[in-house]
Amino acid sequence: MGGEAKKLPRIDFSEVDPSAPGGQAWGTARGEVMDALATFGCFEAHYPALAPRLRAELFEGAVRPLFALSADAKRRNCYGADRPFHGYLGDVPGFPGYESLAIVDGTKDESVRGFARLMWPDGGDNSDSFCGTVVEAAQRIFQLEEAVRRMVMEGLGVAKHHDALSASMWHLFRMSEYKAPNAAEKVVRYGAHQDTNWLSVVCQHEVAGLEMQSRGGEWIVVQPSPTSLVFMVGNELRAWTNDRLYAPFHRITVAGDVPRYSAMLFSVPSFQVQVADELVDDEHPPRFKPHDNNDFVCFCVSEEGALHQDKLKAFCGV
Q1: 235 vs 22, 122, 297, CA distance in Å?
Q2: Membrane spanning segments where (predicted)?
Q3: Which has the minimum average pLDDT: 121-135, 171-185, 265-279?
């Protein structure tokens, strides 16, 4: 059966208030979240709170004009040599037709405004409209991402850890463009990989391209929807939960003559990632050694890391 014939689990969050944990709708969604993340490592979230109007403003009014800037302007999105993957990515070997910019602490107004000043030093309407739209969209996505993180802690019976972990979590908001190949045949713009962070949330705009790999190796094409987001487990959440949750491989392919745009929110741990004591027992011995996320990311992009498919296991597996 081809990948196109399958779909991700779809969870309805329309009746869930992210700011008010508890209640029937919350409990129902939590059960579905845990089933999906343990089995697929990902799911599609129906989330009308991120309205089609805001999505259109994000991609047409903010993201598309951003990528129309000069290469020199986009290269100003840099956080230093020791954080090369936190900012601008372009002309990366092995990733033809892929370009991306990112904002550290991208859910915060001051961070987005700092980014906009780099892109538009003279200010003006472009800068103001960009900031308002990106902050509103990023915060809407963050509200649901935080709710899902809380649901995971509750579902695992370790809810007491949520507040402390959240206090030591930061978020990267990344915007990407995948150039059209002007051909009917699919072209891979970003190859198969697992994410290195905690949770990833993907917002697609109109053009399909995100493909998730099932445990059986089949590729599932995730069609864009004006009311949905895609959640997936990163390797650090997989590590902290002692392999109870699955971190899926995924890739980006494009075809046709229309470029693809997406926006992503990544939650990233700034604490030492260590398997939770409550998730270790005789049937579930520790699978991973304590480690720092930055060290893990550096390993993943190293020559040694490139040799391994399961980079987490190769880096800190017991």
Answers
A1: 28, 40, 10
A2: none
A3: 121-135
pLDDT band at 92 (very low <50, low <70, confident <90, very high): confident
Distance in angstroms (rounded) separating the CA atoms of residues 105 and 110? 9
Picking from 170, 317, 126, 177, the residue whose alpha carbon sits closest to that of residue 238 is 317
DSSP 283: S
State the Cα–Cα distance between residues 103 and 108, nearest whole angstrom: 10
* Pair of tokens at residue 160: 């007491």
Residue 256 burial (10 A CB sphere; 0-12, 13-18, 19+): middle
Q: What domains are there in the chain, each with its CATH number? A: 10-270 (2.60.120.330), 286-317 (no CATH)
- The token duo for 148 is 């899902």
Query: Given this model, what pLDDT does residue 125 score?
Result: 66
Q: 10 Å Cβ neighbour count for 200? A: 25
Q: Rounded to an integer, what distance in angstroms lies between the CA atom of residue 126 and that of residue 141?
A: 22
Q: How many whole angstroms separate alpha carbon 64 and alpha carbon 114?
A: 19
Residue 17 clears pLDDT 60, i.e. is over it: yes
How many CB atoms within 10 Å of residue 43?
23
Is beta strand 228-233 parallel, antiparallel or unpaired with respect to 42-46? Answer: antiparallel
CA distance 261 to 8: 20
**DSSP letter assigned to residue 317:** B
Q: Which residues pair with 262 in a beta bridge?
A: 176, 204
Q: Does the pLDDT value for residue 283 go beyond 80? A: yes
Q: Is the pLDDT of residue 91 over 50?
A: yes
Which is it for strands 219-221 and 210-213: parallel, antiparallel or unpaired?
Answer: antiparallel
The H or E element that residue 201 is part of is strand 199-205
Q: Which two tokens stand for residue 103?
A: 């904002």
Cα distance between residue 276 and residue 104, in whole Å: 27
CA distances from 246 to 154, 232, 277 (A): 17, 9, 19
CA–CA gap between residue 318 and residue 304 (Å, rounded): 18
